[in-house]
Structures are given as C-alpha cells and as structure tokens.
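Crash report, auto-generated. Payload:
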Amino acid sequence: MTNIQVSTKINGDNCEFLCRPEETLLEVLRDRMGLTGTKEGCASGDCGACSVMLDDRLVCSCLVLGAEAQGRQVDTIEGMADGGELHPLQRNFIEHAALQCGICTPGFLIAAKALLDKNPDPTETEVRYWLAGNLCRCTGYDKIVRAVLHTAEEMRGTELG
Amino acid sequence: MAKIDRLEKTDGFRVVGTRPDRPDGVDKVTGRARFGADTFAPGMLIGKVLRSPHPHARIVSIDTTKAMALHGVKAIVTAQDFGEVPRAHKATLHNVMAHGKALYEGHAVAAVAAADVSIARKAVKLIDVEYEILPHVTDVDAAMAQDAPLLHEDNFTSGIDPKPEKPSNIDSFSEFGHGNIEDGFAKADIILEREFTTEAAHQGYIEPHACLATFSEDGNSEIWCTTQGHFLVRDTCAALLDIAESRLRVTASEIGGGFGGKTVVYLEPLALALSRKTGRPVKMVMSRSEVFRATGPTSSSSMRVKIGVTNDGKITAGDAHLNYQSGAFGGFIAMLGAMCAYACYSLENVRATGDEVLTNRPMQASYRAPGAPIINFAVESVIDELAGKLGIDPIDFRLMNAAKEGDRSSYGPKYDQIGLVKTLESARDHPHYQAPVAEGQARGMAVGFWFNFGGLTSISLNVNTDGTVTVSVGRPDIGGSRAAMCQMAAEALGIPYENVRTIIADTSSLGFNDTTDGSRTTFANGLAIIRAAQGAILEMCGRVAKIWDIPQDAVEWVDGFAKPCGPNAGDFEPMGIAEIARKTAQTGGPIAGHHEVNAEGAGVSFSAHIADVKVDEETGCTQICRYTVVQDAGKAIHPSYVEGQYQGGAVQGIGWALNEGYIYGDDGIMQNPGFLDYRMPVCSDVPMIEAKIIEIPNKGHPYGVRGVGETSIVPPLATIANAICSATGIRMTQIPMAPPVLLKAIEEHKKG
Amino acid sequence: MNYQAPTTIEGAVSLLSEASGNTRILAGGTDIIVQLNGEHIDPDLILDIKRINEVCNISAENGGFRIGAGVSCSQLTEHQGVMDLWPGCAEAAGLIGSTQVQGRATIAGNLCNGSPAADSVPALVAAQAIVRLIGPDGIREVPVENIPTGPGQTSIAPSEILHSIFLPSTPSRSGDAYLRFIPRTEMDIAVVGVGISLTLDESDICTAARVALGAVAKTVLLVEEAGAALIGSKIDDNALDQLALTASAACNPIDDKRGTIEFRTKIAGVLAKRVALIAAQRARERVTGRIGEKS
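Recovered output after restart:
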C-alpha cells in the first residue's frame, strides 16, 4: 500500500496531504484535515451529507478519491461564510428553522448555493429536484425549500438594489 | 416568601410563542457543531465490528489468531469479555454482542480495535468464526406458528395466566379495554372486520451511530457519543462493564437525528471494552449498512380489527388484535400499539390485545410514537370504510364518536382536558378540507393519538454575575429544544431570550435524566426550568430584601424586577437581575435555581391529517399533491419548531406508507440496507406540508405545554390509504402501498 | 492498491496492458467508489482517465457528437447541441442519481458498469450510438447494444479502454425520448427504462423507429418488433397498443427488491407508449436534425 502525496486547494488555501489510494475525499477532509463539517451519512452517494464543490462542480465527497483532488479546488461548508458574515443561505436556514438536528445542513447549504449560483430564480419544483440528492429526515423539507426560495428572492433583490 | 407574578399562565406571554433564532444555529450552518463522529483523541484507535452473515446460527468457535497477528491490531473483544449482568440488562448485552447464538444477520459477533480504519477492516475479515446454521424466521405470522424455529428456548410468553408450558416466539401478551365486546357488537347494525399487515420501517436518521470511549488506568472512564439519552448510556454501560456510575462520564455529542433509534446502546459498550483492553481511546462509527442491519427498526405486523356501528353512526364496539414483530429480543411496542388502538374514541365496549413476537431480525427500537402508526393504519382504515358505508363525512363520523374530557380512555385512565374535538373541527374548517378536490385527485383523512411522557428530570439554572443565565439540562437537543428551553427560562425570569444560554450537561453534572424520547423534553425540562427559575427568583428576592433591609415577603418579582410590595415594604427603585447579580459577593454568594422531579401530567395529544393524492392507475404510483397537519400542542413555545415536528413526522409517515420497508429474501438477509433501496422520501417527493397548531393547554405544565414530537407520524399511513381508496375504490390493507402492490390491486379490482 | 492518472490515452492503454492483477478504470467513480467504500472490490490498480484531455470533452463530428468517456452527465445535460439533437439521451443522463452524482457520473461508466438498469443505455441504443474502444491493437468501433453481455459484464476486452461514445446525426423530423419508472421521483435505480428514437415523414408517418428497454432482461434489449409496431403508423392508438404488447412480450425480467416480473412486464408497455408519444412530438416539432437548426 502506497500513500499518495496530493497538493490541492481547500477553501482557497493551498494544502498538501498524504492518502491511501482508496481513501475518499470525504475521509481526507474529515480525518486528515479536521474539516468535520462535511458529514458521512451513507458513503454511497445517496444522502448528500458529504456534498462539496470540486472545481465549482457539486459532488459527493464520498464518491471522489482523495488522490483525485490533485491540482483541483475543493470548497466545503467551512469556507461558506465570508469571515464573520454568514452567507445569506446560512442566515436564512437559521431564520426559517430549516434545520432540526442539523446533520444534513452543511450538505444542503453547499447544494443550495450551487443551485443559486447557477440559477438565481429557481421555482419550487426546481429547488426540490436539485436537492433530491440531499436527504433530510427531520424537517419534511418544507422549511428548507422555503429558506432557499426566500434566499434566492433576497439575493436577487440585493443584486438589483 | 416573596410573590412571583404569573408563574403559571396561559396568556400574556412575552417570549413564549415567538420565533427567535436557535442558539446553536450558527454552529450548525457553519459545520462547527460536533456530532458523534466529529471528535478525535490522541492515540485513538479505530474499532470495527464483525457481524453475523447468518440470520440464525450457533457460534461454535471464534478464532482471532490471524486477526491479532495483523500488524496494528491492538485488541479483539467477544462475548467472553463481558461477565454476568443483572437480568434487566441481559437482552441489551446479548444484542450488543452475540452470546452463543447469532440471532439476526448483522448481529455483532466480535469487535476489533486497530491503529487505523483500513487495518481494522482487514482484521475483521481475518477473524474465523465457525457457525452451525439454524433454521430462521423473519415473518411475524410464521414466527408464531407451532413449528417455527425458536429464538430463545427459555422464552415462555409473559402476560398469560397460567404461564404456558411450552416455549414459543411470543415474548409477551397484553390486553386493554373495558365494557363487553360481545354486547357491543350485538347492538351494532354494521360490523366490519378487516386484516392488515405492515412492514418494518427504520428511523432513518442521517447520522450513523458513533462514539469515542476512553477507559483510564485509574478506573475513570469517558464516553462521547451520539445518543438521545446519555444518562441511559452511562447506566447501561456501567452495568454491562461492571463499573460504578460515578466513574463513567458520558457526554452527548450533537445528535444527527434519532426518532427513537438512539435510545439504546450498540457501539458504546464495545468501544469501552476495547479501550479497557488496550488502554487507548477507541472510536467507532457504523456504516449505513450496519445501521440498517443492526439497529432500529420498528416492528412489522399483522393485525385484525373489528368495529361495530349503529346506522346513526355510533360506534358500539371496537376490537383489535395486534401481532407485532419485535426482532430478536422482544419489547413493548405491541403493548403501546394496543393502548393507542382506540384512544381517539369514546367507547363503551372496547378491547385491544397485542402479541410481541420474536424473529430473526434486529432488536426493534422505538420509532416516533412507537407502535401507534401501525395500529392506527388498521383502525382508521376501518373507521373510514364505515363512514363511507354510513354516508357520513369522515370528520363528522369521528366527531360523533370522539373522546372528550372526562371520558374513560380505551387504555384505562380518564381523559383530562384534551383537544381532539377542537383538532377535528379545525381540520374540518381548514381551507384544505373546505377546498374542492382538484381534478384527477382524491382526498383522505385520519386522526391519531399519542400519550406523550414526562419522567425523571434534573436541571440547574445559574445566574451569572452579569445577570445573564445559564441553564444546564440533561437531555440532548435533537430538534431545536435549546431554543424552547431558553424561551421558557427567559419567560419565567422576565429577561430577554438572548440573555439565557442552555447547554446539554454531561452525566456528571446533573442528576439522572430520562432520554429525549416520548415527546418529553419541552414538557418535562420546561416544567423543571420554570420551577428552577422560581427557586432563583425567590433567592433573588431574598437578596434584595437583605439589601433593602425589609422582610422577604415585602418583595415581589414582576417582569424581571424585584419590587417592594405590601404595606411594610418601603419605597425602593425596582432592582433588575443584572444589579442583583452584580452584588452577589456581598449578599451571600452565587445565585442558582435547580429542580429535580419525576414529571407527571404530560398531556396526551391528537393530530388530524388531510391528504390529496393522485394515483397513476397505469403504474400504481401515488403522488402526494397537498398535505395538512392539524395538531394540538397545548402551548407552542417556539412555533417554527413545533411546525417542524408536524411536518417531519408527516413526511416520515408518508415514506412509511408508500415506499419504505425492510425487504427480506428467503435467506433471512436484509436486501435493502442502504438509502438507495430503503426509499425514504426525497425533497421532490413531497409538497409543502401545511401545519396548523391548535392550543388546548395541558394543565400539567405551567405554560400548558404538551409533547409535539411524535403524534404527527401516527395518522399518515391511514390518511394516505384512505385517500388512495377515494381515488381508486380500493381498500389497501398492506403497508407499504408501493407501486407494484397498488398496481396489482388496481388490476384485480378492474377484473372485478 | 495503486492509483494512476495518465495524461494520454496511449499512456493509459500501456498502463492497463502492463498492470498485473485486477485493474479498475475510474471515470466518474459513482459505481466504483461505492463498491470500494462497501468493500465489495479490492483492485490492484485504479486507473483514472480524467487527466486525459481528449476524453473529457464533447466535440461535434459529422453532424453528431463525440462524447468522451470522462464527460460527466452534468456536462452532457448542459450541452445545448446534445440537448437539441438527442434530448432523450441527455435526459437519460440527467436521471442518473442526484445532482451531485451527475456532477461525476459518466454515460461511459454507466455503460461499462454493465447494469441492465443503466438509465443512459436504452437511450443510447435507441440512438444507434457507436462506442469507440482503444486497446493495444488500436481502435475498435462497436454499436452500443453489443457492449453489455450480462449483468456486470461487457464485451470490452480487459486491455481496452472505452474512449468515447458517438451520437450520430439524425434525419429531419426525428425525435428521441427516455422515461424510466421509479417508486420515488428521484434517486432510484430504474425498475423499467424505455428509450425510443423515431423518424416521421412529411405526413407524420413513422419511417424508422428503435425501441430499447432497460431493467427487463439480463441486458438492455433492442426490441425490433416494438420498433416495427410503430413503423408505417401515425403513432396512433393501434400502433401504441401494439408497441405496448410487443415491448411487454420482449421482457424477461426477474423478481427482486425493485419490482416483480409481472410489474416490470406491464410497466414496459405503459412506458413505451408514453415515450413514443414524446419522441413523436419532438419529431414533429423538428424541421431537421442538424445542429442549430431546431425549429
């Protein structure tokens, strides 16, 4: 078993790590980099709790090998707030009670941000289908969808203003 | 004694009933909150479990030689590493680690601690276990057959007099009711009898079980784990490993969902045993497959329901028998189901009996209102059918027979002030029920009941020197309860919400607290917090009396201020909590309140659900188009999180009704141990869930709180079945009503 | 276990030839990494092809498109040219797993995984897609329907790498569509999948049709009788009924956790009708199949 040396960029910072060939990006983030905000719910790509951005593409970090991060850019929940200021999605998730236990929340936020970056004015149906890969067992999704739609509206307003 | 203004109230709230940001919100949206698997310790080992590949097998031998020889493997534990335990803990121990027999596929047989996860995985595969495969049974009815394979040779059904002479797979029998069933049916004009089955559903929390255990050479141990009840983890682990409770400190991590599934221990005793053997901290995390194969789920069932009515719509008798499959170690879920069967109705003659049935499946664990949704599906389906036969609106029919204050409940006690009638009326008047059914859709409704619990509670409330307040509670916050705790403390003390912080204290910091389950947390913690606040207020009034040099009963507490009152008080400016707190060094030291109680008086609650569905008659696929929950909260402390409980429970119920369920092959192996084929609802499967909060105060709580966490999962199975019946004319008697099942029923119905 | 990420296809082919033991080629990884995480496979070499530029692009070619083996489903559904020419193929790619999974999964991997329930494969078969394989002996071009040979098995030689999939140009008034049945709205494996590609003449009579079924046999099926049921018709009720009958008759499914034999057989016919109607509608709306000339 040979460890692989990987140079990558995580939340804007250059970093290096060693990993086993079969080690996933999720394991690297959590166990080697201490970035435990990205969660493991299934390790099979079915729950979305491990969602991260890989070169600006929404992916499940449990379905990416750590070695594949070489020369790429990874963005996780830890990099979502801008300094001390929460991203509007983060703030609205709190204000809309869009979380109960909170384990799925980082994944939902990453996925929702990817949606709004691509489509600033999604319909409820578009939000629901985009987020279908993120399982939440607590909320019944209602308040999550409302928080995302509200954020979209708010951010569009900000841009216009 | 000083006077406290409006400690108990049902109106005039200042903080209660508002929707402030939850105190742990920022931690949870930034990824900072630490859940079960989010912790590490220096020198930590990784533990993994070897699980039985057979549903039923005698363990002939376990050879760990090869595994121990692997570089990096530090210890292996098996049943031999655990001693005798008190009878009450035997089933738990034997579930945590198979003793002599593996009783289900996924049953733990050995556990390894190794330097890293890849070594631990390899080591598990190097353990040689010789099994003698035994015949197995996973179906509830098959397990009750005379010639069924026996799980436990020494199981004689309890609850039957005289005690049976032969062992069986029926763990226990229970019976509830009153009146005379035969007399009741004799008075009926219409009698309907139907049989129903349901499949087991898993709680489906997104966070797998995880823990980190450290056993120190000096005998002091610590566990960090994701649990609904860390006191229960402490007491159970202490019993299983024969250590004093005072020596074991358990800290509850943030918990990523539980729904009853995290009210039992699985990994914690193994991690602690491995740590004891290695002298190193041991972390263990389950895979999703392990969660499905070895934890939870709820019962599967077969049931028979018989109800008689008169032509003018009065129910004369209700009878039900429940066979609940409860996994390899029995339980009490059929009993709870039997108690809930007819709890919504005022009946002169009622009987419900339940058998708890052992099978080669994982030990069943509580799942949100355990037992209630299953029997509710059966009873509310028959009620709906009767309403149809009588030509009475389904809500009106339920109102005609609804349980009211003073009625004797079907499970025994008399009802106090309850909100069923108001809940049903509110459902009837709801815009959803009043709206015409959309083209191509059909409507169904059902009503459900849950007890709600109180129980052992210990909390402390400390007034800090700047006048802010810290509340320590002993129940994990699973869905935002810290916000409600802060609100109730702020309300009682008369201070701003922002000035209260609630933390979940570890097991060494408070007296025993029952688990976060039974919808007890906001009720029981809240009650204790209000009483503790009362204690702190009295102390503060005493301090102020000292400062003012007037008698204590000449000080009253109004809206967060001590004020002089009465004829001998004198004239003083009201003194606020910050000023009082600042002077504590001069007045007698820190100010605190605390309360310890076995909280009683948790008010029962009822929930009425309305669903509009569309059935694709060519595929058997059911789409939920509109869904409404109307439920009594007693008093909603934080309405957003109350709505969240209604919505979440409804969607779990929708999943159970339509597509969730354990799938077993003839080989007794679970075929769908993952989120791909254990089909929980995804975001695009459901519409917005309208949540209507009814408030009929519970007299057992100073602010009128009833539990709200569980009742919402009770009615959805029947609600959707009733809607499907409106759509297709077919009375489904099987859960889940998955497309292949429904399509088959549609085709048979068309053939006539 | 070893991990290699060559930057040329030649480099990948020679690494594959030289490797001893079991090699798995990594494209999107949404099947292989699941199997790794579940400890179902333990390869000696993981050969990542996504550092090879030429397999990570979609390029126009002879009026059609060549889709590299490393192209993700998201890239495919975001490609307007492919969406215009073969909307059914693109939609099929857009049904594989979640948004997250589509950001990684490839139709090449979907094909190589050999699942009879693979969503993109019936659509590709209906579209007469051609697979380009590269091995030590050079290039081999194979119709997509000849790739799967059984569950988890393909006709791709151990020394070959799937380089790209070619989606051809279409005659004018052609359309394709793909639908699958799943119990939920998303995230499930197809219980039945149906891909249809057809061409109409100026009077709306069907002149060519290919019907492919997924998850109803050991491999994706190209059902010629079902195509024949449409040819010569105006996709009317009679033709649709015949289509449903022939589609159902071609099924040879299994009972499993996702569906029964009876259910799959019935649904194949139901879906075939629905898919044919969508494909026909698309054909009627399209003046010509050439890129950029959509009506």
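Post-recovery validation: Chain B has a mean pLDDT of 97.
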